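Per reviewer request, we include the raw input and output of the structure prediction for the construct analysed in the revised manuscript.
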Amino acid sequence: MKQYRDPSFEGRVGQAAEAKQKALDKLRARPPVDEKLAAERQAARLKREAREAEKRAEKKAAVEAAKQAKVAKAEASAAAAPQLPTEAERKAARDARYAARKSRK
């Protein structure tokens, strides 16, 4: 009974050899690959990959176009928006108001 719970090294090697032989027998039992069928499958795969690549390219182009439109819209709105005065312009306006107030007195 000890064999079942703790197999010896020879037992493990034997089991591995049996499993390897079973796998080889199963592989050899498979029918040979039909060249015509394999060529059809490969052609279908290549066609599918080409369609997927085309879809990816279209999607990428659409995303890029949307990005360009967004940038153009942002530029247009920035151009249409009133320009905020710079610090120097604000100081000049403040000084002009101060001078006008002083000249009235």
